[in-house]
Structures are given as structure tokens and as C-alpha cells.
Fold each of these.
Amino acid sequence: MKTRSSRADSKREKDKLINEDRRDFLKLSAMAAATPALLRSPQAAAEAPILPPSPATRPWVMELPKQIVPAAHVPYLTPAPTELANVAGGEAGRGRHQHWARFRPGAEYYELRAKEINWVFNPAYPSQKIWSYRAANTPSNEYSATVMAHYGTPTLCRIYNDLPANHTGFGTPEISTHLHNQHCGSESDGFPGDYYSATKAGPSLTAPGKFKDHLYPNAYAGFDTPPNSTGDYREALGTLFYHDHTLDFTAPNLYRGLAGFYLLYDHLDSGNEADPTPGALRLPSHPYDYPLMFADRLFDASGRLYYDQVNPEGVLGDKILVNGLIEPVLKVAARRYRFRLLNTGPSRFYDFALVNPNNVKQKFTYIGNDGNLLPNPLLNMQSITLGVAERADIVVDFSKYLVGTTLYLVNRMRQEETRLPKDIKEPGVRVLKIVVDRWPSAQDLSQVPATLRPLPPIDPAELAAAPVRRFVFERRQNMWAINGQFVNLSSPRFVVPKGRGEIWELMNIDNGWSHPIHIHLEEGRILSRERDGEQLPVPPYERGRKDVYTIHENETIRIFIRFRDYAGKYVMHCHNLIHEDHAMMLRFDVQ
């Protein structure tokens, strides 16, 4: 009779073989589908093929909607949600929901569907199939559903996989949806091995399924210390986004469109600029709270999406999507707006500036980084740098401009390969045209107060006693590795005791690429940046709480981080999605 230990070892070995077979299948199938002209030798596989540029587009003819329609919640779910996976009812075989008794009552229900739809990126290109997360009320002119939720009201989000099972081309029709920066149980975190469809299940699920339920507590971190507390409001999250996280296929599935915004509000950042509650920040609110998603894409000669999911150098897009459109127009009222900027990648870095038609930079107020409000606003800013998966919240006061004024959001960051950005080049490439086309229909009651959200203190004694973990991010064997190892989701590299503060050192030992590193479950605080033994200043916008840490050439970042409230399996990875899909990821467990 096999012992429990031997059975566990056998399962881990089986999981490992599944992962290896899956990667082999990815490579073989993608090579078989590759354009015949792109023949590769083993040596050429290490280099990105030289591809022709995307065909010319027609700028400033497509309009973004003047306001985003929030996804509507539904009164009930059928079948009813359950603590254990309802495999018999069609749910994928996830783990038990943690803190179910606390967060299930009072939860708002949402249904999102990952599905294939027709989309036009630009009038110069044909309508084509993309993949998108949709709610029942998502308008046809919105690239994906936007969820607006509130602390104190949990969200139970049922995500259906309606992608075509007979899909051909890049990407795979399984999904595992990660709500980036959400503080939630591992069973709802979108673990890369939790991918599912009606006929397939990832190695960390027990069964396939048409849908999977995700319990998002919308509770401040620390809610279980002590048990049943409210957590620390200084840990509030604001601008989150969800995206597919399927093992080996994150980049191509996002390339097809599987990403959307999830915005969180609380008593401070209440989403109501007329909020009479003392202490409410009264930042610009919907419809003047406007998310902007940026993504780089390459198109073939016929104007259709092109992606190479085999080459570890990937594809650098030369067209920038803004909420799914190339060179769109956004018409705004002459009042304050809150813009939430998100870089979904897969590989391009940005340095954004707002300019007039003569390329004169305009000023704005920087209020949040990685979706978290800073302690104080940064005034009179003129640029924003975003690595992949980083976010920035800014406030622009359009009341300073006459109706009829035209402005442009430009990208000044030059990048010639997927590995890293090159430099800043003026005046930049125009990616979004903004036209002040009307006076506001009501008085602008919004403001940007001098104090936003304070930071939770770090105890110097705890910091001095914190254990240190070191992670080296490097190129290895034509792939991407962490501490010399490739991803293996079947077992953790290490276990973190729940509640203990630690210092993590993130090291980039090479001078040929940059790595935006994302850690699931918790945010951290940057303690220092160092390059070649010299301390670097931490820029003001990085001095808040963060969940993405971009380590540039020969750089080391030290962060303080603490994993609370939940146990289970989580991952750390490079959010240059090409690096992630080519093995720069590790699993760690919290116990």
C-alpha cells in the first residue's frame, strides 16, 4: 500500500510531467502553425525575427466612450455558489473558499464571460476576432468589462469560459483569471495551474468546468489579525485589473484581449465627489473617473493581430492600443478628471506626457501608483513612467482650457526590443487625442486634498529582525530563470509563515533587460534601490505601497513585505509576459 507521502510524491511527479508536456505541446504546435518564411535554426531561436511594421492606420477617427459603463451585478447565481467546488454543477475543481462564512453573506454577485467577439482596432484594419471578458451589460464599444466594487461588500464573481474549444492560432482556450493585487485566497487568485475549460483542467484543479467562482473579500489586509477585525484602511487598494494567467499562455491570451479593470472604493476614496462624509477625499468620480488601458500590438500585412508565442524574445508591438483602439479620441468636459493608467504589456515600457499641439508639456497631479493612493499628491508633474502591469492615477484639470482645446497623450519612451526600454526621445509618439468639447453639465465638486492616504508604519525593530530572501532574475538556457530554476508549479520553492514580515531582495544581474516583478497576495514597500553597489534614490511615486517592482540593468531592489490572512499557493514572476511564459516564475506557499 502506498503511504500518503509516496502518493503525494507520485502526484507531484505527475503534475511536473503535465507541465512539461504542456510546454512541449505549446512549442510544437506553435512551430507547426508558424509562417513558413520564419524558418528557425536552434541559433536563430534565441533572437527575435525581424518583422515588417504594422500597416498604416488612420488616426483620430475612432472615439472612446465619454463614460465607462460599470459591470452590473446580478441578483443571484444559478447554481448557487458553494464553499466547496460544485463540480457536479459545472464548476472547475478549485480548492475550498477561505473565510467563506465571513465573506459569503452580503456578497454581491457578478457574472463575467470570457468569450470571442468581433472588434475593430482601427478603420484601416479589418474587423477580427478577439477574446474579451464581458458582463451582460458591457457595451459593444468597450474592450472589456469594468467592475466597480466597495470595501465592506465582498464580490463573488463567477467567470465562465465561453472561448471556442476548436481555437487555432496563438493562445489557448483555457483561462485562469487573476485579479492583480487583490488580497484574496489562493483558490480565487488565478493561480497559473488553475486553468480550466469545459473539457480541460490544469494540474492544480481536480476537474474541468464551464465556470469557476472567485470570492473577493474587498477587505483591508490584516482583517484576520486579530480575527474578525476590519483590517487597516491604510492598506486599501484602488486601481486593480484582472487578466488571464494560464500557465505558458498568459502573454498570447492577453494579446487576444483577456484583461479588464476592477476598481475599489472605500470611505476615503468613496467614488463620490459630492460625498458629505467628513474626511472623504472627493476625488473626481464616475463618469469623470476614467480608466485607460495601454497595450502594444503588432499587426500583419492584412491588418490582423500577429504574435509569436514560441520565441523567448516574443514580439514588440509598434501600435499602442488605448482601451482597445489605435489612436482614438477622448472627448472631455472642461472640469477635473481622474485617469487611471494601466500598462497591460506584454513588453513595452512607457513614459507618458500630456502635450498641446505644439508639444508643450502640460501639468497634472499624480495621486496613486500601482493603484494605491500616495500619502500626498505630487503636484505639477509632467511625465509618468510605467513598466508592464504598473498603474498610475492622475488628475487633470481641464477647466484651465477653453472648449475646443486639443491635447495629446504621448509616449516618449523608445524601445526597440522586448527586453528593455532604450531611452526618452522628444516629442514622443501620440497615442491618444483629448478634445475639450463641452462645459460640464453640473458644478465640479471634486478636489485633490493635500493629504490622501497615510502609509502604515514599519516597526524599525521588526525590520532589523526580518529574515532576508534573495532572488536573482537571469537569462538561462535561452529561457528566463529565478535563482537558476525555471517554473515548477507542482511544489513550492519555499514556505512563508503567515503574518511574518520579511525582506526580499530582487536582483537583476544582467545588463541586457529589465524585469517588472509582481508578487501575488500582498504589497510591499521599497526600502532601497542599488546599482553596481551604489544607492539610487527611490522616486517619490515609488515611496508608497507597490505590487510591481521594476528592476533595471544590474539593479537590486530591497522590499519589506508581509503575507497575512490567507494560506495556500501563490506565485512571483516577471510581468514582462514573454519572460513569464518562458519560465521566469516561482511558486511559494503561505502557511
Amino acid sequence: MTVLPDDGLELAAEFPDVSHEQWQRLVAGVLRKSGKDVEGAQAEEALSTALEDGLRTRPLFTAHDAAPEPGFPGFAPFVRGSRAEGNTVGGWDVRQRHSVADAATVLGDLENGVTSLWLVVGEGGIPVSSLGRVLDGVYLDLAPVVLDAGPEVEPAARELLRLYEERGVAPEAVRGNLGGDPLGHEARTGRSYDIATVAGLARRCADTYPGLRALTVDALPYHEAGGSAAQELGASIATGVAYLRELTEAGLSVEQACAQLEFRYAATADQFLTIAKLRAARRLWARVAEACGAPAAGAQLQHVVTSPVMMTRRDPWVNMLRTTIATLAAGAGGADSVTVLPFDNELGLPDAFARRIARNTSTILIEESHLSRVIDPAGGSWYVERLTDELAHAGWEFFRTIERDGGQAAVLRSGRLRTDLATTWAERSKKLSKRREPITGVSEFPHLAEKPVERRPAPEAPSGGLPRVRRDEAYEELRARSDAHLAATGSRPRIFLAAIGPAAAHTARTTFASNLFQAGGIEPVTDGTFAESGATEVCLCSSDALYEEQAESVAAELRATGASHVFLAGRPGQYQGVDAYVFAGCDAVAVLSATLDRMGVSR
């Protein structure tokens, strides 16, 4: 609602009111010029974008796009935040992940903006016996510690609690999470461990350490297996419900059990979807707490991690842009803690520069952009409120299907959840292959001459459970073939781009073809003649008008000089001598893979 100033000045007063139907007619007129003859709601639908989970983003949202009242921060259903003050006091908790026993790096992070530690302990991480050394010099009463110890959660927790006692930290000053997550570990590895151990830790935390939690509901395994936002939400809520059942059976009240859980979600470069997902997650958990008879205990504590799925190995510098947008979305979505993965995270152990950029991303957004000064800054947006509501319903429906099939443990062990996630990823992979979901620096604007970024190997991540997918994996395989060919022969596979006509006619399609073939590690050659290029295949690039006049004759000339395969950049046609067409929306991965095969580039 717009509140007019005291003088009654309304800037739009001189303009006539416009209806939604009038706007749709204008949209139809514009679309008609581009060859689409649609009217009314169909014109608006033509500009809509399909999302996963059956959701659609329309081009215009108005006050008529009603959504449930989100309430106030700190009050059920907690859509606008779990705490009344939000992150306005000091910003969100900046949490950095550590998987090796390096005390100097830990202290360096804490001295330069990091406010809590996320320690991977046990197999593939920091040995339990090294916890004291890693935390040497850390003020444990000031820096919360979150453990990720898998089946070694009990000895790791015991060692951490011993350190608190040894260093004189009062029980009420202890903050953090012991990280018990049997179902999350099973999702990662296919192996579980006894939740009774974690329930005992939860009992101890509830009795002695009011600021320490015992369990993490980690949704990253489902996100990293290719799941959609709704599937991530549904699986996390189902996991949380499973833990509530176990904890209450172990003697904790519903309020005490809820206070032992912290939820971990992924933040992607799709900022609006991330914001809506975090808001929807709080609403869903509030509904669970309400159904359990403890509505006041439904404030979900959220730890948000920038998505590993979106990170690329080629041109990794672009990851800094992705993580910046993801961090902004996490902050705007009300995350309590945020972990920014360093831009070189997929290449091995991050170096000092990458860790510095990661922690400074949050610092800039909090201290310079003042993002945390407003609680739920996206709240009230008709689009965000509607997307939050639709995503909450989709997530709740997925949660209900899990419960109908016996709960989270059952769907993990039966393979049903794996199948659901794989189906979603298969559909998304088609978009990636067709570049409908572009990856800057990989499928779009790749840089073949970039110097590889090398890092020390990181500890091997747990495996054996759900797969870990990455957006760049299909293109990474193609580029790896090209790299191997370069190493073996001294040159990359090449394709000659035959530009027809003046620059104004061919530049757009020459640029398109160049980007396309470089995405597969194929070097485009534009200078000289085909015979001089060293290529065996060629792609014609020009305008539709010049194709009509010259495509067939140019193709014939090129074949006469040795071209074994002729592409044409543009809409598929019936030009004699042209073997294949490349165009926006074609299956780039299939085209590039087949091209490398013909060029003799081994798999």
C-alpha cells in the first residue's frame, strides 16, 4: 500500500488508470511483430518462464496475485524471519568451512571477518585427536563451532565438550552444533549410524548447554543430487520430522527437540528462487511445529551454503559472481548463518586469496551494502510472496509423498528418493545441454586459452550414497577430451568458420558458432582459407538472405577442398551440401560430442 504525503501529492494523478487487459493488448501487439499471433492471457503466458516443480514465473505480478499473510519477524509462521530483530544487530553469522587441520588458516579466517567455524571431522576431514590443535588460540566463548563428523559424532562431540571445559568456557556461553545427522550421512554414503547416540547428545545439550544444538538437517545431499527447490524442502522437512520423532521418544519435549535442530540449505545464483525457498522453509517448519502442538517452537534456524552444483572448474573466477548473488539471496532470505564456498572449491583446497574473497563477500554485503539493516527486504513483493507460497505448497506436497511412503529413511533405502532426484536432474540436464540454462565461461563465452587454475588436492568427499552432480559436468567431459588431444598432438581439434558476406551479415552467427564450438574445446578458425586452417570440418556463418543465395555453392566449394562435414549456423533448412545445423536451442552437448568423435578425439 502506498501512503501519500501530507500534502496529498500523488505523482500518478495526471495519468489515467490502466487495466491489466490493456497491458495484455500492448504485449500482444509487440509479440505480433515478432511473428507470434496471440491475444489476452495467451500473450502474457508467452512471456512466462517455466521453473522446476511445475512453477511458472510470469512477466507481471500485481496486487491481485494474493498470497497468505506472511506475519511478522519472530512470530509464527516465521516467513519473515525466525527472530524479531532479524539480522539487523550485526548481520548474519559468517561461517567458514574447514576440512584440514590447519590452525593458522582457522585463526586467519576468524581474525578477518569470519564469526563461526564449520569443521569437517573424522573420515575425509580433521582427525578427532587434532581438534584441540586446530582450535588452539580460538576464543571458544566467542566463536561458535559447528561439527560435521558423520559416524564419529560422539567422539568428536566428546572432545569438543572437553575443550570447552578445559578452557573454562561456561556452559551457557557455548554456541554451535555438534552436527549429528544420521539420515544426511546415509544420503551421502549409503551407510547410517545409530541415532540413539545423537539423541543422548541432544539430551545433554538440552540439560546443560542451552546455546548448543546436537543435530543438523542437511539438505545439501538432495540439492547436490540434482533435486529441485521443492524436493530439497520436502526432504529436509521429512528429515526434521524423523528427528523430532526420535528425540521425543528419547524423552525430550517437542519444544526441546525443535531447539536441537539446525537446517542447512543451498543458495544458488537464482536469487529470487533462493529467497523464496528460505522463506518457504521457515513456513513449512512452523507448520510442523504447529501440528506437533508447539507453534512457538517453530522458528527454524538456517545455515545456508552457496551451491556446490553451480560452481565451475573452467573459468572459476566467474564463481565469485555466482557466490556473490547467492550470498545476497541468502541474506535477503533471512539466513541465520552463511557459508560462502571459495571460488576454487571444485579444484581442490582453496588458497588464501580464495578464502579471503569468500569471507569478504559477506562483509561487503553486510557492512557496505547494508543488506542486513532491513528485515526481510524482499517481503511485500507480489512476486516473492507468490513464489514463496507456491514453493511452500510444492515442498509440502513432496514431504507428504515421503511420509506416505514410510518417511525419509524408507525412501532413501528403497531408492525412491534417488529416482525422483534423478528424474529432475535429467530434465535440467536437457536444458543445460541445449544451453537454455547457460553457464558463463563454460557453455557461453568459454575461454580456450585460459591458464588452468591448480590447487592442492582436497580430502576426498564421502561417497556411496546419492550422486553428486555439477552443472558443468557434460561440458567438462568435452573440454577434458580436448585437453588430452592438445597434450597428445600439440593442438586442439579445429573447425573453420566460413563467414559469407560483409561483417554486418555474418558477425552475429560467427560469434554464436565460435562460442558453441569452444564450449566443447574445439578451436574456431576464422582467418585465412579452409585449406590453411588445418581443420577438417567447417561451419557456414551468415544471414538467412545470403544463405539462400550462396550457402549451397560455398558448401560445394568447401567440400571440393576437403571439408568432410559442413555445418550451417542458423535455422534448419534444406541446403544441399549442408550436413547439420547449429542454432539457439540445439543440443550443444550432442553436437559437440559427435563432432569430437568424427575428429578422432578419444573419449
Amino acid sequence: MNRDARGRDSRDATAEESDGYEPKKLEARWRERWVESDRYEADPDGRDPSEATFVTVPYPYPNGGMHIGHARTYTVPDAYARYRRQRGDNVLFPIAWHVTGTPIVGAVERLKRGDAHQLDSLRNAFEVPESDLRDLETPMGFARYFIENHYEAGMRRLGLSIDWRREFTTEDERYSRFIGWQYETLHERGLLEKGLHPVNYCTNEEQPVTTHDIYEGEDAEFQEYTLIAFRAASDDSSGAGGEAEPGAESERTVYPMATLRPETVRGVTNAFVDPDATYARATVDGEEWVVSLEATEKLALQAREVEVLETVPGTEVVGTRVRNPVTDEEIVVLPADFVDTDSATGVVMSVPAHSPDDWVALEASKARTDDLRAYGLDPEAVRAIESRAVLTLEGYGEFPAADAVAEYGIESSDDPELEAATEELYTREFHRGELNEDYGEFAGRVVEDVREELDAHYREQGAFDAMYDFAETVVCRCGGRVEVAEQDTWFLRYDDAGWREKAHQAVANLDAIPENTREQYDHTIEWLEEWPCIRNYGLGTRLPWDDAFVIEPLSDSTIYTAYYTIAHRIQEVPVEDLTREFFDALLLGPESVDEPDERALDLREEFEYWYPVDYRCSGNDLISNHLTFFLSHHAELFEQAKWPRGITVMGMGLLEGESMSSSRGHVVLPGEAIERYGADTVRFFLLNSAEPWQDYDWRAEAVAATRDQLERFWNHAVDLIDGPAGERDLERIDRWLLAHLQETVREVTGAMDRFETRKASQRAFYRFEEYLKWYRRRTDLGRAGARWTLRTVLETRLRLLAPVIPFAANELHERLTGELAEDVPWPEPVPEFEDSSVIVEERLVRALLEDVCDIVDVTDTDPETIRVYVAADWKREVFETVVKTGPDQGAVMEQVMQNPAHRDRGDAVNGLVGDLVSFVREREDAALETLAGIDERAVYEASADFLESEFDADVLIDAEDADPIDPAGKASQARPFRPAIHLE
């Protein structure tokens, strides 16, 4: 009698359930069983560490609810963890909660002040009851609510095989001691420094923030603009005129103009300001500047002494004449409504020869005769402004911008094509443009090669300066505007040569999945320089030697995977005993301290058993920060044997074709999806819709279809389980199905080894369902041998599918065998049933069936007799020659024509060789070898009864060279493995 893991009769255990597919009841029962048995609690158990697998996923940030995109992130590593358990490994799959930083604090503040957007998100997107809102008014209350009610609840409902004993939050005291050890060690090694550094800065919170803190503009990166110090052409900076006195130039007002193309400075013909905006006359580091009012705030954040002397309307700046610091030429400031005063300085230099938007703007200014007079400008003087080319670009005329404008048919600054034209020209000039002779020592050089050198040259002369800014609006999660600030801050020295070398080595040792991500890690390592690692306030670990600062989220989440190994046991050690020496002994070994704490050494045994991380599954967007930090910190702090072994990146999720967004409420909650479809359906869709590193699209119609397919699978399985077991009395078609089963085992195993969850589920489920459809068509399912075959197939498929649909797979496998699918070993191919011949033979039968169907459809006939002609023996000899010689028609003909009989057949041989060369070229050697051993006529004769039943016609098999009845002269058209067919 079959009995379950708790000794109950497995059929009795489910007797109260109907045999219909009811995932809600089924899955609830299995969740209870898993909890009661502590099934996924992993401890060192005597198995060798080489048989231990440690798989992790970034710990969630619970500043909101879990949605279906998160569910996929956690389900992929769970499927792998389940697979490795079935392969016999001792598997650790833990989870924790990241609460460091300000997003949770910001969310609480928005809630407390009654922010409508925040309340709408909580009530509608994440269904927080009104009665629970009060519990969310402290940071940890907010975090705990979403941890317990969304993340943990959702993970348990999904059936994630997590060791829940090891969960912690980054606000826990013991974890903070662990992070403190990490930063004290890095500090001691000289990899932390304090100094001025540009950072993303929230003007509301008045502290640096990272991408995790950003609500709008998360992907924006600040840029370093070159400021070209144009100075008023006279002491009268209003532009009233007059010549400057000798020696007074250093005292003249500066009109700094920002650019990302300093090499175009000699091509400036004029400047633009917004006449309707407010500008400021301010002292900046003791020098008088005229910039937009917004720019004074930006400059003040960037370690400059700024004092606004007065504000002036933009109309007063229009008409000012300023002097180019490189050419010493005067230019005039013109009005333009396209100027964004919140971008850089708000004073824009114009290079119409090389900037399509400047070309269009200047031409528009020349046409604004009446407007210009209203600003006190001489229209004729403006119309006299001539563009000045400063570089040459192959394929363009003297003024490349004019050519680009003409090519795109642009007529105004509002033309949507203007941006594309500008970007294309900028790119081409950067990579191929050569500076002209006016640039002296830089003349003739390509912009890409000379830009930095030229910029540094003019900075040394005092003509250029710099400022940082974003190219778009960036908003903090607290609602504050984010600007670029230069702060006296602690930063990690990722640009240290020794550290970089170790990080590159960690990448070289890594199993990067997919492989094409490897270069992204190396690129990030080269790109990283200093990384500000502290904040002024928020949740998290205080900087050990300066508790005025908090270590920021990306910096405290680099080696926390090591903490998982001891998180459940370190609670026994008093917090005050968790000194630096304690963690040195625990993580670096007893030789690192004079008198190691025995408790630390005891914990070290578990650390050494599990470490390193075998695979980390994370978003591909985190390669440029978190994942590279993860590798770098491991490379610096641990010996090479403890470095991460593998990282699998994850693609992004769409919802009905659009990006998911919690803030917009465009999400699906896992609980809702599971309630509607069942956890197995959700898991199956998430794992099968795309490979993990590819983007996927959650579409309700497709998910519902998946639910229906699982139900059909369930029903077929229950019918088999409830029916007679059958006997092992196998026919050829049974062996065909069993042979495909062995192929499937190999393919699924290889796919799961590489995290190819889509390929694995496609092979084990959908493709095999196609085999079963053919099998059911080909045989009597009531045969004892067929029943035995189908039950054998079902048992193996359930084990293959257990990582993907663990609820149904375990239930059905237990009903079938008395054992849980996850308790029995992962399937291995059975040599006895590996038979390529039977697969190829059945492929020939199916091809013949399809060919007959095609002829029936084309001729619209209902045949009474189907005549099948197998190719003559001499054609088979030619086939064997092609296989032996290789798919080279000339070489084959040379061999074939050595036979006088073949020479007599002339063009017939030539056409046959051409066909067979194509046939052989499309097949692998193993398949050709199998074909060579097949008796084609015997295969068709064995399937004649089947073909007769399919077409309700007599099926006659004959050979072309056996003098067959051939009323339509079809026999001569037969080719090896492509018989000729005649219908009567």
C-alpha cells in the first residue's frame, strides 16, 4: 500500500478531495505539510561540502508590496534549488529583508502627511485596509507590514523552498555589527577615503541618495559639463556698450556657458537666454557671474561659495555682448524660448555650424525682425551673424549642421526629428570629425582622441571651468528634487588598482549566465571610480568610526550572503561580544586573531560548509552596481575559494505589454494571481514564458491558457493513476515513446544546469505532450504495455516538472508511487530505452502520413488505395556514397560515376545526387548513421495498418525496382527516405 511521508495511506490522505483539479485546496494542503515537516531547513548533515548548494536572490526592499515581477525573481532560484535537491545536494535557499536607507522613511513621511498618491498606492495597488494604515506610521512598522503580509505570505503561497530560520533585517543589531566589521576592515586596508565627491543629493532630505532612493529619473546619470567663461565685453555687463579699460578683464562679469562639446568653442557665434525667465547676478567663489536662478542653487551644492546679489529678468540679459575666452571675439546674447534655465547655467552658447538645433534657432532669430527690435537688438546685425566651421567631417559640407537639417527636412525647433538629427551628427563628429587649423597643436586630430586633452588645456589657462548636472528631472522617493552636489563624504575606492585586479579575477572565475554578461562586469569594474558609501540619516548601519553617518543601501548589501550561513545561530551570542576580532575569526579564520573566540570558530564551521555562494539570481540592471560590488567586496575580503561561483541575471517584467509600476498601480499581486489561477500555474507561466534573463510579459489570457493546460495534464494523470498498472509488454511504439523520454531527461537536465527554465519546462511539458498526442494516435491505450509505458512516462515527467510545479507534481507522484517527487532522485536516462533507430523510424512514418495528407488536400480526393514506392537499391547505394564522401556534389559524382550502371542512368543520377547532398547536409552524422541502418520498406510495412485506419484505405508498400504495379509512373520519383506516393 502506498504511504506518504507521515505514514498515512496516500489515497486516504486525499480521499476527501475530488479528483478534479482544485489548486486552492491542493496547494494549501502541501504548504501545511512543508511547514509541519520543516522540509527546507538546511543544516550541515554529514554530506561533503561539495554536495552542498547555496543559491541566493537579492533580499527584497519592503517599501511597498510584492508584485508578480518580484515573484518571478524569487521563483527562478527556487526552481534551481529544488532541482539541486533532487540531484542529491544539501541546498540552502535563504531570504532576508533590506530596509537600509530612506525609501521606507520617505514612504512613512508621505503617509503621515496624507500624500494622496501614497495613500492611493497603499489602498488600491497593495490593498492595505484602512484599519492597518496606522501600523505603517513608523519605518519598521511599515517594513514589517509588507514583509509579513506581502512578501513572506506571497513567497509561502508560491511554494518557495526557503529556510525561514535565517531571515533577518538590515536593521538588526547583530547584522549591523557584521557590516561594521566589513567597513572597519576596508578602512584599515585603505579602501575607504574621505573627500569631496559628486553625489546625487536630495534637496528635501539634504543628504546623498542612490538609485534605490529615486522615484523619477532612476536611470539618469549626472554629467560633467565644461563651463566656458565668456566675460562681458565691457564693465557694463548690461550690454550698454563701451570699451573695457586695460587690465580690467579679470573683474568683468562672467557669463558661464555649459557644454558637453568643448572642442566647438571656436565655432560659437552667439548665445541664447530665456527672456521670460529669472536670472541672477551672483558672486561665485568671489567672481561675479550671471546665471539662471536655478543654477545658483546647483552651484552652491557643488562646493562653491555662492551669494545672489540680485535677480534680473531675462530681458535684461538679452543684448549683452560677451567675449569668447579662446578666440577673444565678441558675440551677442539673443532671446530664445527653448532655453531650459534648469539645465546647467541657463545661458546657452550657439555653434550653428555643428549643432542642428543651434542652426535652426539662429535662422529663426534672423527671421524675428520685430521681436529683435523690441529687445533693443539690431536685426541687421543679427542677420549678419555667420556660422563658423571648426572641424571637418567626411560626407558633409562646410556646415554639417545645415546638411543634417536639410537631410531630415527640419523647419522649426519644434520638429520631433531635430533631436535625432542632432544626436546622429554629434555621434559622427565625435568619432570622425577632425579639428581644423585654428586649433593649433590640436589641429587635424579626431574629436574622440582630443576632447579631454583640449578641455584640460583650456582649464589650465582659466578659460574653462566645470559643473555637474542631470540631463533630466530626478526626484527622490520622498518627493524632493535630486541635484548633483559635491560633498565631503566617505567613499569606496573602487578605482584602486589592486582592488580592480582582484575584481576582474573574480569575474574571470565566475559562471556568468548568460555568458555575454561577463564583459558587462568587466566594463563596470573599469568604469567605477570612487563610490560615496554614506548618508546623513535613514535606516541601516552607522559608520563605525563616525556614527553621524549611515552606510548607504548599495554599500551594505555586498557580502551579506555570508551572514545567511550563521544568521539563525548568531542570535545566541550577545551583541556586545560581536567584536571585530569575533568576525575576523569567524570569516577570516583563527589565524587572523591572537585568541579566537570558540563561539566564532563554531559558527565558522557552518560558514565554511556553505560558502561560497554557488549561484546568485538578480536583475540584469544591477550589473552596473550591486552585482559588481558583490563581486568586488568578496574579491577583497575573502580568499579566492570563497568568491561567488555563479550569477544568473534576470530580465524585466511587463504587464499586458507595459512596464510594471507600483506607483501607477499597474501591477498584479501574487496573492490575486494565485487565488485566481493557482500557484503552480503562476510558477509555470513565470518560468516558461521566457528564459530568466529575457524580458517576459504577464498576460491574463496566456496565464489562463496555462491553467487550462495544467488541468488537462492533471486529468490525464489521474486517469492513469486510477487505472490498471499494466505490464511491461512493449511494442515498437512504446519503445519510441520511452526513447523520447530518455532524450527529454537529458535535455531537461542540461537546461536546468544552466537555469534555462523555459527550455526545461518546454521539453518536459509541451514538447512531450506532442509526443503523447502521436502515441495516443498510434496505439491502443488499453493495452497492458501501453498502460505500463504511460505510467512510467508520467512518473519520470513528474520528477522533471517538480521544480516548476511542485504542488501538483508531488501530489500526483505520491499517488502514483507512494513517494514525493522531491524525495526521489532526479531521473537519469535508462540505457535500455535509448534507441535512436526507433525514433528515426517513427519519424519516417509520420513524414509519410503528412505527405499523403498533403496530396489528399491538394487533389481533394478520398482514396481507396494508397500505393507507396520505396526507392530502388541503387538509389540507396548513392545515398551511402554521399554519406561516406560528404555533402560535396562534385566529389560524390566522381565516386558514383565510377560505376558503369550509374553512368548509364545519366541525368537521373545527377539530380538524385543533388537531392541527397542537400538531405545529408541538413543532418548530423549520428542521424545519418542511424538512417543507414534502417530497412525503410520494413518500417512502412509495419505501419501499414495504422495508415489504413487513418485514411480508411488499402495501403500497399512496394519497391521501385521490384516491378510494382505503377499506373501513374510514380515509382521512379522515389528517393531514399522520401517514398513516391500514388492515390487511387
